Amino acid sequence: MMNSFYRDTWAEIDLDAIYYNVSQLKKLLPDETCIMAVVKANAYGHGDAQVAKTALEAGASYLAVAFLDEALALREKGITAPILVLGASRPSDVHLAAKHKISLTVFQPDWVEQAADLYKGTERVRFHLKMDTGMGRLGVREEAETKRIVELIDGHPYFSLEGVYTHFATADEINTDYFSFQYRRFLQMLEWLPYKPPMIHCGNSATALRFPDKVFNMVRFGISMYGLSPSPAIKPYLPYELKEAFSLHSRLVHVKKLQPGEKVSYGATYTAETEQWIGTVPIGYADGWLRKLQNFHVLVNGKKAPIVGRICMDQLMIRLPEPMPVGTKVTLIGRQGDEYISVDDVAQYLGTINYEVPCTVSYRVPRIFFRNKSIMEVRNVVLNGNDYV
Ligand SMILES: *Cc1c(COP(=O)(O)O)cnc(C)c1O
């Protein structure tokens, strides 16, 4: 059954683009290297289950999320592929991971000891050991703690070490000194292990695309699955042209002519200098179109139109290049004719990274999923919750 929505603001998710980005990576990687599709944060704002299914169809064999709730949500939506929780979980929740066949990240001997005490089940619990090679976030740093964790896992009848991994801090930078340092450190730390677990991984999107021969047997593919470059600096060096999956649209709900001296929005900070046409667009900061985007532009009738006055919680105003009817389509991210606003453009205007932009577009904005160029599904969380129909 298809959800509907009754506001004229929506995001379009091009699952064909996601399929393309994953299948191109699959071609680039050696045959024995698996793709773990990173679908944390509702697939970077795109839609977790829809992206997960598409990535799996395109050749990914594993999924990753940030915390246990996100993994459980995927299971509720009928996703049966293996899932790794990349962040910290509680030792007391290991039974949930076991029941739903979700692998957990470990990096503290005490944690494994507590989990072993608390876990009374007989289903297998799979762990990936995280090594901190220089990211300074999560991970073991010493040989003794590493050996202790492996000992504790191996000593438990239902625990097993499925993987070992690390994360790079600078894989998206042109200068590779720190990347190489971390890579060498990872090789050294792997020597601490009494045996090699089945999965060894270190590559995020930047690493997978730039150094496909340095990723062991699995990559964690996030940002570039969505068609975005891990950084502006490496964009010219990517091995294939990524296709952006996310676009954002609305419609004019009101149009009026202002006289010189008339003002717009809170604080009355914008004054019409001349006679001009102003359109009201039903999207605001509660939708993730942040107040800092004031003076940025949107597209209407294939032309740029500046956002004027303060952005409100649910609405904003634009200066129209010419009078237009109510109902005219407004594109905030995406293409209209020859004009294009990319996620990168929005990120640059906000002084942030592209990752933040689709993540910030909130649950209030319904998502329309396109597959094989036609609408496959509509999700409206405001009206239908996160239930999967
Ligand atoms: C989010 C995340 C990734 C994905 O990184 P991208 O740069 O989006 O490809 C990989 N590994 C870990 C540990 C992460 O947290």
From TrEMBL:
CC terms in the record's Gene Ontology section: cytosol
Organism: Parageobacillus caldoxylosilyticus NBRC 107762
Keywords on record: Isomerase, Pyridoxal phosphate
Similarity comment: family membership: Belongs to the alanine racemase family.
Documented EC number(s): 5.1.1.1
Positions bearing N6-(pyridoxal phosphate)lysine: 40
BP terms from Gene Ontology: D-alanine biosynthetic process; peptidoglycan biosynthetic process
Function in brief: Catalyzes the interconversion of L-alanine and D-alanine. May also act on other amino acids.
InterPro entries from the UniProt entry: Ala_racemase, Ala_racemase/Decarboxylase_C, Ala_racemase_C, Ala_racemase_N, Ala_racemase_pyridoxalP-BS, PLP-binding_barrel
Active site: 40, 266
Entry binding sites for substrate: 137, 313
Protein name: Alanine racemase
The organism's taxonomic lineage, starting at the top: Bacteria, Bacillati, Bacillota, Bacilli, Bacillales
Pathway(s) of this molecule: Amino-acid biosynthesis; D-alanine biosynthesis; D-alanine from L-alanine: step 1/1
